[in-house]
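As noted in the main text, all predictions were made from sequence alone. Below is one such record, for HEAT repeat domain-containing protein.
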Amino acid sequence: MLIETLATILNDTDAPPIDHYAEDALAELEGRRFFLFQHVLCDLIPLLNLDQEVLLAFITRLLDTGGNDLDSGALNTAFGEWTKKDPTRPFKVYEAVRAGDSLALRQLFTVLRMNADAEVGLIFAQDHEREAKLAATSALGAMELGERYGEVLDTLLQGASSDDGDIALRSVEAGYRAAAKRKVYAPASFDEQLARILQTRSPTAIHLAADLLWLHREGLSESAIDLCLDAVADVDPDNIVTISHIDHTTYQLVGAERVEKVVYLLSELFDRSQGRITLDAFQSTYHALKQAGADVLGSAVVYWLLNGDVYTRKCVANEVCSVGSDDPPFSIPASSLPTEPSDQLFLCRKAVGWFFIDPLAAVVIPLAVLRDGSPDIASDVLSLIYDPLLLSYGGKLKDYLERYVGGGGANGSGITELLARKAAFKDAMEGIERLVELHPSEMQREAERVQWNEKMERGMEQGRRKSIFEDIFTKQYILYGRSSLTPIHTGEGATHLTEIEMKSFSISSELPLLNIVDPVGLDHMLVHFKLEPREQR
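Prediction:
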């Protein structure tokens, strides 16, 4: 009712202009208040009976005030709804554009799309000046074309071959978008123009490829999809917007059972960017891989370890390795293992080298090779499981291997022998911690404690200074690890403390024994496993 009442008042002939005191009002609207005001206006604008020039000027002022933080699409849509209320209004906008009205030009795309004026859009796309041609081209791709589909695609194809890069790019995008709306592939001639545009590897061309894959994939043939995937692999690591769009794309491709293309693309992104792009930027995609099943993620891990460079393997290790997990994060299907015994052993060494910090993740691939790989390398694989994994870890790794043997896992006798050797080694180590010669002196312990405390104090202070949360959240004081106190301000200058009882939780981890007994030898071994090249054939 409020919106209708406001519209009635503003539509009255004696009403003040809609932009009356607009500058003063906008100056008082900051942040969230501006968006709330905008929502009211978006409901109000379609109900107004104002002159086009007045309304365009008012909307433009709002758009300029909001800047990049404003959801301009909402105001533009409101103006489009306004033009639909009277069949003469769209044509007045078109006349203003032809007359060179820059304010009307800013609304041309929305008015054409929302009124589905394909005929007028074709006229602007074929014969008008550049900015109007760009707006009309985008509108043609976004609207329902019906019987004009073929005619529009011919016009868009002509624009796609233009020497003007912006017009060519916009025309190609519109052509694929129009095809996707009809759930058909765009003609092969569009693939040719797409290849020409993507060959430049410009930021706008790569962004186009990402958006085509994300938003208009139904209009892309297999060759067009491959062209786009090749292009996005060259994205600038600093272009976080395009990378975000690529993440949306790869997430959808996993769901569309194109996992192999996604796995290959991610490896290319990590290695070409030399580690500046990581799996942190592709959390949606990684989540999709995990949701697709442990075998799917395991197959991806196998590919990355076998074919990726150091940057890819580091990204994978950072993601799959965790502390305190009770089960491996993935499983290895037989179909994902390489056929050559040398490659199988290489894969095991890479898994141990990169995943050593998480023994359950590191042991999955060696066990898979024992199960489905070549029997000729079984003894080498068993040696890897024992040294360095089983020598370094007991606990969960030992329990997991015992469950593996109890479940009838392949080469169970070999694993049983390893467990026996581990038990004998542990017995031989019994009491070694009591050798005084191996203990640090009290002075060394005290020096280490002082250094650690100073480091923690500096880190906490720097964290507080740089944190955006310092001024947002209240501080809590931990009372002997059993409860917390939160100061509550009453608004009258008084403060009282609210006590909250804390619940206990725990997580366990195990330090590798070899890192204590032989840290230099262990480090040398792991570095060798990580960096040794794959045998060339």
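The radius of gyration is 32 Å. The beta strands are 477-479, 483-489, 495-501. These features were considered when defining construct boundaries for the mutagenesis experiments described in Section 2.9.
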